[in-house]
Amino acid sequence: MRLSLQLYTLRDALDKDLKGTLDQVAEIGLKYVEFAGFYGLSAAEWKALADERGLKFSSAHIGYDQFVNEFDAVVADAKTLELTTVIVPWIGKEHYEEGWASFGKKLEPIGAKLKEHGLRLAYHNHAFEFETDGLDGLYGATSPDLLKAQLDLAWVSIGGHDPVATIQKFADRTPMVHLKDYDPTKTPQWRPAGQGILNWDEILPACEAAGVEFGAIELDESPGDPIDAVRESYQYFASKGLS
Questions:
Q1: pLDDT digit string (tens) for 88-129?
Q2: DSSP 6
Q3: H or E element that contains 198
Q4: What is the distance between the alpha carbons of residues 226 and 96, in angstroms, rounded to a whole number?
């Protein structure tokens, strides 16, 4: 499993100084980032900035409505960024109020169309899916060839489920996970990896056994400077043999 960084973690810094922030990401030692917004640049400009810093894109978070309404543009940008995987990062209740299986049947044709272009579609979970039959309904109704899972392991835990068991359950469709840690006794609850409550010594081997390709570091909020939290997380996972 290779490390990546979900750039949403550094959204405020990117908004203020995009190039300088990407310099810091590269200096930490990261080789991959997960795309999360254009910040006024084109896909070609992003690719050039990444190339200058020795960075590649592991994947991208793209809103569901863009897949529906701007499909050709999504594919074109994905090709420019040399992506293999594009991910629905979140959906509103209106999309799954008729059931998660029903929503899965809306995603599956999109996954089929993307596959024709050499791209994989994945869905990124939060905790609200576990209030119903979210992941079971979604993945039970869809082919693993057409809809992959990006398991956010902290949100799995917050949703009351065991990250290891969840990785094992969906191993046939999980090429990517989010590596984020949390401590519910603190504010914000998000913590650099190894400073929260997740048992990484069990989780990381489960990821390897499942053939997970990328683990993206992410903090929704950071207890201090987000770049410091990213650095601490990277160093923690590097100490576990990842890079």
A1: 999 999 999 999 999 999 999 999 999 999 999 999 999 999
A2: B
A3: none
A4: 33
Contact yes or no for 22/51 (Cβ under 8 A): no
Quote the mean pLDDT of the chain.
98
pLDDT > 90 in the chain, percent: 100
Instruction: In whole angstroms, give the CA distance from residue 8 to residue 13.
Output: 10
* Chain segment 140-167, per-residue pLDDT in tens: 999 999 999 999 999 999 999 999 999 9
Number of domains the chain is built from = 1
Task: Tokens for 34, please give them.
Answer: 């997960």
- CATH code of the domain containing 196: 3.20.20.150
Cβ contact 204:1 at 8 Å: yes
**pLDDT tens per residue across span 66-76:** 999 999 999 99
Side chain identity, residue 73: A
152 is in which domain, residue-wise?
2-239
The dihedrals phi and psi of 223, each to the nearest 5 degrees, come to -70, -20
Measured CA to CA, the distance from residue 111 to residue 147 in angstroms comes to 6
Whole-number Å distance between alpha carbons of 226 and 94: 32
Distance CA 97, CA 47 (A): 38
Q: Is 87 exposed, middle or buried, given 0-12, 13-18 or 19+ CB atoms closer than 10 A?
A: buried
Residue 118 · residue 112 · CB < 8 Å? no
N- to C-terminal Cα separation, the chain: 8
**Token pair of 132 as six digits:** 């119903």
